[in-house]
Design brief:
About 0% of the residues lie in helices and about 40% in strands. The chain has about 140 residues and is mainly beta. Bound molecules: zinc ion (ZN). The site of zinc ion (ZN) has 8 residues, from loops.
């Protein structure tokens, strides 16, 4: 997954609800230093670059892509890292992107919820596409 910055913060895990210290991996801005950051810190940008290449977004404000894995339940969540006028102001759950590790009892097993015509619906609404169906 390449390089990322890490924000240390306290968050309740969206998957198990446990609150605790987490490390949020940030996949935007200047990641070359793999900076360790906290909420309230200023966020690093790549000088003289467009925002999609890690440069400073307009007014230094963006909702950047974040990702975490919970130490307690071992499941992952996608987050939005809120940066306002270059300062990290908070981290919220991204409701549009469910984690890649599905729910289910067995660790590492994919739980199939429902088989549709061309798709297999996994736990938490994760859709696996292109699965040929045996009829
Ligand atoms: Zn958890």
């Amino acid at each position: 997954m390449g390089t990322y910055n890490i924000i240390h913060t306290e968050l309740s895990c969206p998957r198990c609800g446990e609150c605790g210290q987490v490390e949020v991996n940030c996949y935007f801005g200047d990641r070359s230093e793999m900076s360790r950051l906290r909420i309230g810190d200023s966020y690093p940008w790549v000088p003289e670059r467009q925002p999609q290449n890690g440069g400073r977004p307009e007014q230094g404000s963006t909702d950047g892509e974040g990702y975490m894995e919970c130490e307690r339940c071992g499941k992952d969540s996608f987050l939005r890292v809120l940066v306002r006028e270059d300062l990290i102001t908070g981290v919220v759950v991204d409701p549009t992107k469910p984690g890649m590790i599905p729910d289910g009892e067995e660790c590492g097993m994919v739980r199939i919820v429902e088989v549709l015509d061309h798709f297999v619906l996994l736990g938490k609404g994760v859709v696996l596409t292109g699965v040929p169906l045996q009829k």
